[in-house]
Amino acid sequence: MLPDESRSGARDPDSLAPATTQREARDLATEPDATRSRRNRPIKYLIWVLVLAVFAGAFVLILRHKSTPAAAPSRHGASGSPVATTAATAKSGDIGVYVDAIGTVTPTYTANITSEVTGLVTVVHFTEGQLVRKGTPLIEIDPRPYQATLLQAQGTLERDQNVLAQAQMDLARYRQAWAKNAIPKQTLDDQEKLVLQDQGTVKLDQGAVQYDQVQLSFCHIVSPINGRVGLRLVDPGNVVQANGTTPLAVVTQLQPITVVFSVPEDSLSQIAPQLRNKAKLTVDVLGRADQKQITTGLLLTLDNQIDTTTGTVKARAQFANTDNSLYPNQFVNTRLLVNTEHNATLIPTSAIQHDGTQAFVYVLADNVAHRRAIQQGVADRGNTAVTGINPGDVLATSSFDKLEDGGKVKISKAAPSSTSSGEPGNPASSGSSAP
């Protein structure tokens, strides 16, 4: 028999441990997934916090590395070396005030020659592009029909002239007879009126002869002006019509020649008074790039009214054109000189820089650049009249991206290849205009 303790179910603690462990394992195996997830959540949060902290630290290090400025080179160059720049000297001189415009070369005279008679073209005397003088033969039209008509008119005239002569002789006899009371007064009066009628007939015949002579002359076409003949528009054997609209030849005068251009109405106050005073205003003709001057002439006149659609008035200038550099209907650039400013301070336009609306230059003295504000005036062919500096001042003309007020400079003969010639929007002026 076992003791009472054994029957009551009391067991040794060591013997109970394996059974307890097995029950817990069974409980864990049967525990729901949600309960296990809640138990593992703090661990996952801790892992994510650590990962985010690592990424945040790396991001901060990258930003700090990028924001740390590298050892930027000084505006004066490495180790504070002077900036190399080219220079120009301000000078005192004269500069013109111009009005720029686009003009058209217009011949002084252009003759569109048409036929005044109907007939057959027999001869074309000119060659295409030939320079002709006034009166040079150009075209011949068959004159025979008009010669025959003229001959008839001349015959009629001769007959009527003789009839008139006979009537005048009879009148002389009647007057003598009347003086002797040999004939009645009525006979003398009738003969006087007959003579007057014959005189009228003779005048009609003379007019017919002259008309036929003119018609005959139209068969021989000559140049009405000095100039150059264009392309041939008619050939021998063609029949031309009287008063036709198709020209037989075109002759254009080239020397002298004119240019018609338009100027703003605001410039009339400068131009018109000088024309009234017989002033000779010069006009320059430039090439398409406004760089090469082709020729120079004089302003002739202004038009008598302003074009309300454009606010401009037409002007005409005349040029000798001895070298035939101007061609009819050619488009050219013109510059009308309306005034000249004397003893102005002139500097290269390339030396002028802009800071907003303020123009300035760098004045070089003792190898140091000094920024100086200026006021711009008239510009002409790369030079500009300014105020704010004095003649003789040395100005920087390059390396503006490196120059600064008070910085050291070194003047070189050639502009450095890496420097900027100026700020955007500040091109050097190749022409000029009225202020």
Distance between the termini: 138 Å
User: Can you give the mean pLDDT?
Assistant: 83
How does the overall form come out from the CA principal axes? Answer: elongated
Percent in strands: 25-35%
- How many helical elements? 6
Count the strands? Answer: 22
Main CATH class of the largest domain: Mainly Beta
Overall structural domain count: 4
Supply the CATH architecture of the largest domain.
Beta Barrel
Helix content, binned percent: 25-40%
Compressed to H and E, one letter per element, the order equals: HHHEEEEEEEHHEEEEEHEEEEEEEEEE
- Predict the CATH topology of the largest domain: OB fold (Dihydrolipoamide Acetyltransferase, E2P)
Rg, Cα atoms, Å? 53 Å
Q: Which structural class matches the secondary elements?
A: alpha+beta
Strand order across the largest sheet: 3-12-15-14-13-16
CATH homologous superfamily annotation of the largest domain: RNA polymerase II/Efflux pump adaptor protein, barrel-sandwich hybrid domain
Task: Kindly summarize this structure in a few lines.
The protein is an alpha+beta fold. Helices cover 31% and strands 31% of the residues.
